[in-house]
From TrEMBL:
PROSITE patterns: FHA_DOMAIN
Protein name per UniProt: FHA domain-containing protein
Domain FHA per the UniProt entry, residue ranges: 33-86
Alphabetically ordered keywords of this record: Phosphoprotein
Amino acid sequence: MLELTMATVSAADAGATAGMTMAQAPSEPGAVLRVGRDAAVCRLVVPEDWLFVSRVHLEFSCGPDGTWRLTWLRGSQPDPASEVRLTVGESTGTLGYGATVPLPRGVLGEVVVRDRGAPRSVDVGFCHEA
């Protein structure tokens, strides 16, 4: 099971937890959870005017062995308007544009999508159950 909790944060409401949304999916091959502006394909949807987030920005997908992977999907622009940082356990790093990383089982983590042009972010916490 993968559980996601998302909060959108701007300078005006930093630290607030109102508006948090959640999604979950079983660890079955082919299961997918997406984050972005397009409500037709994303389970976690950010405000439409937050253009630093692509229509489909992040994809959590479950592979044939039940292991979840995170992909920062490439958008329509060659250079992204955001940066993505990933924290897994005590380790933090930047996720490359178009990159995919596995999510270890039994850990908590966070993905932060930061606007490069304004003090806004999309914070997605995750728990990949063992």
